Amino acid sequence: MPDLSQIVKAYDIRGVVPDEWDEQLAALFGGAFVDVTGAPGVVIGHDMRPSSPGLAGAFAQGAAARGADVTEIGLCSTDQLYYASGALSLPGAMFTASHNPAQYNGIKLCRAGATPVGQDSGLAEIRALVERWAEEGAPPTAPVTGTVTQRDVLNDYAAHLRSLVDLTGIRPLRVVVDAGNGMGGHTVPTALAGLPVELDAMYFELDGTFPNHEANPLDPANIVDLQARVRKTGADIGLAFDGDADRCFVVDERGEPVSPSAITALVASRELARSPGSTVIHNLITSWSVPEVVKECGGTPVRTRVGHSFIKDEMARTGAIFGGEHSAHYYFRDFWNADTGMLAALHVLAALGGQDGPLSELVAAYDRYAASGEINSRVDDQPGRAAAVREAYAGRDDVRLDELDGLTVTASDWWFNLRASNTEPLLRLNVEARDRAVMERVRDEVLGIVRA
């Protein structure tokens, strides 16, 4: 019996191939997905990892055996799969492990319209069926086996994104893009085709062994090459995508990283100009600047827990036009409430190309505070260390505590959030203040307790 508790996570399936899961299990997941969703059809895509085509093909056969008609879109980014799920009104399965090392793979599942599938929305039932079938044997095939057909949606995906951003009349831009050997190398050329953009492509060769660096642009080590290229060539902007190209990270013309909070605020201002008075979602560790900008633009900010399922739930509940996270995930109402780094990148290019100043000046209005970035501390006793921090601040009159997601402590000129990792023995700290000296003082004070 496979130990599915190790690979079925809160929001997806992910593990080492073939040690933790393989094509045989993928076929069972395909059948279980069809049974739980009750869908007559499924759309399936995969990234460039060596194991992805085989796993995706096995899933397709398992789904077809249970009677579903399968549409295979082949190599794609995760947001391209979400596009297909939305445009075709089909549940979807994306085979990717995002930025994890090459030996990993996984499945991101959604219902029709790119609605996420997590533990509380079908994933637990899928796991239970797979466990039963793994023990008792595969289920019988349906009276009528489903068909398996191939369809290329890349051009349609790019056209849909371009329909959501006005890029007419932008000035010529020199753009460096680091795809990290991930799926950005597949989607970026089509998404940017025909624009007045001089594209400098870095690591566009699809290679799931990631020979140049990890495809995780939130780690500063992985954008060093991009920063150097921007500085060397005098480019206007640098963009970095993660392995499945659903996240986008930005560097300015100086090669300096642009905070995802600043990008969230910038895109929010543009979306609110298009739809005045709308709601914008942000998680609780984005900058103070995000709700400030949203209010200044006449919108309503709504604060949520960290995690795409919470963002998407709030997007649906409130009818929000846009949502952003500190991790460079950006969600759009007009993209079925799903996240797409490519659409966020197009917004940034439109904003930059629609005025004459450099990117650093453009984003300065949206980057107002000193932030620590996320600091991870490995601890043996997560609850004990977190409780010690709470005790240190609970009796103070000058702060406010809330526990929407971990512990958030807010003062008049600073705030911090301390959250436990769900998968590792880590506490994650984010601090922001009105100036750097205060931020560093609060940061060091909290870390002193966490690491005591």
From TrEMBL:
Q: Where is the signal peptide?
A: none
One Pfam annotation reads PGM_PMM_IV
Keyword terms of this UniProt record: Isomerase, Magnesium, Metal-binding, Phosphoprotein
Give a yes or no for keyword Thylakoid in this entry: no
Give the protein's cofactors.
Mg(2+)
Which domain of life does this protein belong to? Answer: Bacteria
Q: Any idea where the Alpha-D-phosphohexomutase C-terminal domain is?
A: 374-447
Domain (Alpha-D-phosphohexomutase alpha/beta/alpha) spans 6-134, 156-255, 262-369
Carries keyword Metal-binding? yes
Q: Its family?
A: Belongs to the phosphohexose mutase family.
Supply the name of the protein: Phosphomannomutase/phosphoglucomutase
Q: Which organism is it from?
A: Streptomyces sodiiphilus
